Amino acid sequence: MRTHQTTCGHTATVATRAVILRPATTADAQAVALVHRAAFDQALSWILPLHTPAEDLAYFSGLVVDQSTTVAERDGQVVGFTSYLDCWLNQLYVSPSEQSNGIGGTLLRAVKTEHESVAPNTPLQLWTFQANAGARRFYERHAFVAVEFTDGSRNEEREPDVRYEWVSD
What we know:
The chain is an alpha+beta fold. It has helices spanning about 30-45, 55-65, 105-120, 135-140, and strands spanning about 1-5, 10-15, 20-25, 70-75, 75-85, 90-95, 125-130, 145-150, 160-165. The strands form three sheets. The protein has a four-stranded antiparallel β-sheet, with helices on both faces. A three-stranded antiparallel β-sheet has the order 7-9-8, covered by helices on one side. The longest helix has 16 residues, at about 105-120.
């Protein structure tokens, strides 16, 4: 809890629930897989799951080892994550109950900072589905530009997608 002085001289106690960003560990794989599944299912409910929970866990166990993966933690719980490798933002998901609280933007700024340090003047790229209007608005709000649209024949969901790029100023 923090106490804040208001403009009229009164004090108010405001509960703050800070988000902590930290590198993911293999112990986070289960939580990361669950955040991914919940966020994916909420945003893209018409796409049936292609993988079992065990397959998701195996994939995300490898991801936290093989890619630069960051988790956002609130009150000891993983509420979002990113994975970044070779100029690609491969994953950015936030728990549905935590969306619109600034966590995605905080995670994205961290990836942009990392990207600028390892590959300055090189585009940061990502794919998202064309039908994921929320994700598209989010990335466009954060200065990503759509540079390629596909028919989805190259992704396992067979869902039309869009490639975005961001180049630092």
